[in-house]
Input
Amino acid sequence: MKKRNERPLGRPRTSDQTMPTEEIIIQTASRLFLENGYPTISVDDVAKACNVTKATIYYYYASKAELFTEAMVKMMIRIRKKMNSMLQENLPLKKRLLNITKTHLKATTNVDTNGLTKGLNNALSPEQQQKIHQAETDMYQALEHAFIDAMERVEIRSVQPIFTVHAYLSLLKIGNLDNQEEKFFSDTDKMAEQIVDLLWNGISPNDEMEDK
Output
């Protein structure tokens, strides 16, 4: 009798699905963690949402912390690529920032940004925390370079670029609050316009500010 091929316990079965199993796991985990926070979501939750076994999850990732880390890092890589593409468009910086802001607010409507980081300090190793921090830093370098380029072309006034990036990110967080807790504006487009206008009032060239 011919002996059947054996495979390691938990290894995903080959299928004709277009997306690799690992990518399905990562994208599903990203969505669940973003919408519900780290403490709330278990490996079993991710497995059920992916229609795979827990053993399949553990075949790729040794722990929930490792799954979360990789999910966040890969999500930030995708955002960085999208942001780079939008920042390279042949448009004034203000218009590019408006497009990015609208995209961000619409993509994070169901994201609990406050709950996402709860419980992470004790759950993740220092190495995992550093990996996420580095991915976040890399993600926003494109913004920093865009601000520097705009300063050199006198499209905006000379300001500390990293500070400007963080000022913009802080305004985005207010936009997330508008999505989740309070409604300052009737829709995300109006919220995006207000965020960019508020930032632009602080970085516009002096002569532009004097003309207002």
